[in-house]
Amino acid sequence: MDIMTTEQAGKLWGVTPRRVSELCRDGRIKGAFKIGTSWVMPADTQKPQDARVTNGKWIGYQRKKRAFIFDFSNATTWIDCQSTDDFRQQFQFLRAYHGCRPLYLCDYEKNGLQVPNKKRLSILTHELLGKYVDEKELNNLIETHWEAYPAKGIYFALDKNMLLNQCGHYMIYGSEFICGIAAQCFCQPKLKQSGIPTIISVNVPTTLISDFTIQELIDRVQTDFDGMKTIDFGFSITENLSAKHIVKIEHPHKIADPLNGYLPYYYSEEDKPHD
C-alpha cells in the first residue's frame, strides 16, 4: 500500500502538517496509522470535509461520536469485531477513566491530559515536597527516579471501579513518580494534604490506542468479561489528550488505599485545600 506523510498531505490539502496530525488523532482520517511517532495514511486519502461551517454559520463539529462503553449487564452482545481495523471502524472512541490528584483542576480543563515530562514533574515535586526535603537532595532524587521511571504515558482503566478498589493510590497520593520519591523520604502521607482525589472520564480516540491493546480488549471481552462486576483492564497512550475529549470530572468520597492494606480512605469537601 502506498502511503503519504502528514507533510505530503498538508501540501496536497493546503493545511499545516500539525493540522493533519490533529485530524489523525481525532479519528477523522480513515486508515491513518502511526509509524514510530509519525502519522501516515493511504496515498489516495481525501481531505476530510470541514463540518464546522454551514450557510455561513458556526455550528460546531457535526461528526459521529460512537464510543465503546463497557456494559456490565451484557459483555458480549455489543461487540462483534474480530480485528483492530473492525474495532476502529465501529468505534471512534473508547470510554476510559483516569485517576489523579490534581492541585489545579483548571489545568485539565484547559490543557487536557498531558504525557508526563521531566520538567513538569520536577516543578510539581518541588511544590509538593519542597518543604519536607532539602532542595539538593530532591533534585538528585528526581534525576534518579526519572531515569528509572517506566510510566512515560497517560494511563487509563476501562472500569471506574477498578480505580476505586485496586488503584486508589493515584487519587490518594497523586503521581506515582512523586509518590515513590515521597516514600523514600518518609513523607508519603503528606501528599494527602494537597490536591483533590479525581476521576476523569474521557473518550479516547481509538487512533491513539495501540493495535496490541485493542486486540487484547477484543479477545478479553469475548472470553473473560461476561458476568464480571469489576474489569481489570488498563492501558496507556503516549500522546496528549485534548480537553475536548473529557466527558466528566468527579471527586470520589471513598477509595481503597492499596498502600495501606486497602483500608478505605475518605474525602469530603471540607478536606479540599484552599488558596
Please write out the topology:
Layout: E1 3-5, H1 6-13, H2 17-25, E2 33-35, E3 38-42, E4 53-54, E5 57-58, E6 67-68, H3 84-90, E7 93-100, H4 105-111, H5 118-129, H6 135-148, E8 154-157, H7 160-166, H8 169-172, H9 176-184, E9 198-205, H10 211-223, E10 234-237, E11 246-250, E12 254-257, E13 263-266
Parallel strand pairs: 6-7
Antiparallel strand pairs: 1-3, 2-3, 4-5, 7-9, 8-10, 9-11, 12-13
- Given the structure, what is the number of helices? 10
Task: Please state the average pLDDT score.
Answer: 84
Radius of gyration equals 21 Å
Largest sheet: 4 strands, mixed
Q: Give the proportion of residues in helices.
A: 25-40%
Low-confidence runs (pLDDT<50, min 5 residues)?
A: 51-64
Q: Which structural category fits the helices and strands?
A: alpha+beta
The proportion of strand residues reads 15-25%
Kindly report the spatial arrangement of strands forming the biggest sheet: 6-7-9-11
The rough form would be described as globular
What is the chain-wise order of helices and strands? EHHEEEEEHEHHHEHHHEHEEEE
Q: How many strands?
A: 13
The N- to C-terminal Cα distance equals 57 Å
